[in-house]
Write a structure and sequence with these properties.
By secondary structure, the chain is mostly helical. Helices cover 79% and strands 0% of the residues.
Length: 387
Amino acid sequence: MQKSSGQAFLILGIILISINLRTSIASVGPLIPFIREDLGISNGLAGFLTTLSLLTFAVFSLFAPSIGKRLGHGKAIFLGILLLTIGVVVRVLGGIELLYLGTALTGIGIVIANVLMIPFFKARLPEKIGLMTAILSTGMSLFAAVASGISVPLAVDLGLGWRGSLASWGVLMVLALVVWIPQMSSRKSGFQGDLLKAKNVWKSKLAWQITLFMGAQSVMYFTMVTWLPDMLIARGMSPVKAGIALSYMQLISLIGTFFVPNYLIRLKEQSNVILIVGIGYLVGYSALFIQNELIAFAALTIIGIGSGASLSIAYTLISLRSAEDLTTAKLSGMVQSAGYILAALGPLIFGISLDLFDNWNILIWFLLIMTVQFILFGLPAGRNRKI
């Protein structure tokens, strides 16, 4: 009975942490006009907030496994959420300097928790890897959509302003910290015993295949989130409807994020699922060449489900393709670091292309090229092997 209660509390903690891993980022975009006006900064400085988060993710993904090794997974994840909470508060206390400092702290906190969650629940709940992966990715995606949708109402309708709106997410973070306290005194998830067996993931061909697969799906997701509304508006859709289209794509992705992991772990190999998702991307992106609202929403349905499935596949492959805890943590750090670097570059590269050629079809071709990378590296990554 005590073991069952402890496991339920652990799962509750994982749920609470998962819902905090994207809210601090997703809540910023809709509030940028308010931030820009209040602080008197340029579009470039305001836009750099998202880029700063992604770059912070990329750098500190590499250090997260070492932090986990030193402190143990439970304490390291608590430290990550604590830094996230501090960052959320700091960034609303002053001008642009504190805004950037707080944003950097939120990025460091998020990436420590994000990288270590996968090896943590793989070690603590090995029989529930599929369920825990589904909870992690679904919680992140769901509350990213919620945060982006209610940030402005919190600021305007409730009169909190952009500072109060951003800071309000700290309540959920404090709750996650309180619930996570019992995990700080738990064992280090077998981490120390695995030190000598840890593999060098940077020299593994399979690790690079998983990494480039993750990078492709990250580029597609963040490029779509950044540029889809502008493309739809340029094609005649109203700003309100374009925003609804983006929210719809994110919400429909929950189907993929929740149901795919449990299915994947039952399979000996995951390559066929990756191929099916890749073909779906090819169909969905190609349909966007046709400038019709009904077809656009049909395409976004396919793309959205694929997007959710892709994130879950990437997280599941990290668990399935590594044996030891430390190898899992190192692979998680490597995969997410490269993924965020590419995610930061994707929207930037397309933005430059749009300035040069002023043609929205380039966005679709760019996404199709990323889909080819997704398939090429996903197929070998889905085979039944270990690093």
